[in-house]
Amino acid sequence: MSQDETTPPSAPFAALPATSGPLKAVTVGNTTYTLLGTAHVSAQSADDVRNLADSGQFDAIAIELCDARHHSMNNPDAMGEQDLFQVFKQGKAGMVAASLALGAFQQRIAEQSGIEPGAEMRAALEECRSRNLPLLLVDRDVGVTLKRIYRNVPWWQRFSLFSGLIGSVLSRQDVSKEEIEKLKEGDMLEATFSEFAAESEALYTPLIRERDRYMALRLAEQAPPGRFKNVLVVLGAGHLKGTVEHLEAPLPDNPTVEREALEATPPPSKLWKALPWLITILVITGFAIGFSRNTDLGWQLVLEWFLINGILSGGATIIALAHPVTVIATFFAAPLTSLNPTIGAGFVAAGVELYMRKPKVRDFSSLRKDVTHLKGWWQNRVSRTLLVFILATLGSAVGTWVAGFRIAGALFGGDAA
């Protein structure tokens, strides 16, 4: 809603200033939750937060942020302070790369529009500090949401979904007006996935519906009826309706149990976990069959497995401009790691790259700025190491399937000696 469309507040807001965004009050027991629907790219929304806080009627402010994003907002360089080796060891490289890409998208929007996305959240933080009000962080961790999206969508859609995420924030240096408009209803994730979310229940549920429920549960935990008299809740306009509906309906007596369930990452299926071991068994069995038929055939299969895996995985690191030693190490490691599900070619490639390049302090300090441009991902040693990890992993995965089908074809397709 634009400023000139603003209507006078209804009865629950009679003493509150008019706002550019929608207001809705929900009273539970002795506590009133006053929800302000904001646009994440809007100076007016930031003014709305300040004006409401100026009214002096609120004794707490809740905002649509999680601990990680709150920390990042207070410390923009936090991403670059992570231990890269632990990032790779714990399998978080993809999530870190996605977070950097989203941050780059946000920075470009700020440069083009002159408005930093999330200005209303910063305004709420400032008001809490200046007025000594309790700050309540009620949104779910962005990493958990990404993982639940990943687990919720069918496996054949996952690659296109996340390649779309990375591509949408890296492929264009200029952010379109349409993308900026999307941010007026939702946050960075919602703007990026909006093309898919409207048509996919599997995506819409973890991205929107679960977070509406999650925020209502967090309010019930941190600001249960009676703890505060009036809580200002600042959240994107796209979450207003759903969150209000959950607050108006009876919430569980123990909201923590359901909230923790919404934070859990669904485990992969047993078949998916067993697949790498199954592939290893099939490949080794293929080698054995080849040698049993003909020694030359057996060595031919081993050589093709080695070359296909090594060339595709090592070649992928060349795309990331990896150090020559990294390329060579990946070439020799990929055929072996593909037969050992406990370690991946990407982990080996990233470890060698870290040893050879040794990112400097300036790489970490400039990381947030460098990744706003496509070229910067290759120039910064930290982000380039992430690319080495991801591309080596993808190359090895493709090599495993290509070589596996090649072995099957040689043994059962009539090419065997």
Automatic annotation (TrEMBL):
Superkingdom: Bacteria
TM spans (from-to): 274-291, 303-322, 328-352, 386-412
UniProt keywords, alphabetically: Membrane, Transmembrane, Transmembrane helix
Matching PANTHER family: PHEROMONE SHUTDOWN PROTEIN (PTHR21530), TRAB DOMAIN-CONTAINING PROTEIN (PTHR21530:SF7)
Protein name: Pheromone shutdown-related protein TraB
Species name: Vreelandella songnenensis
Taxonomic classification: Bacteria, Pseudomonadati, Pseudomonadota, Gammaproteobacteria, Oceanospirillales
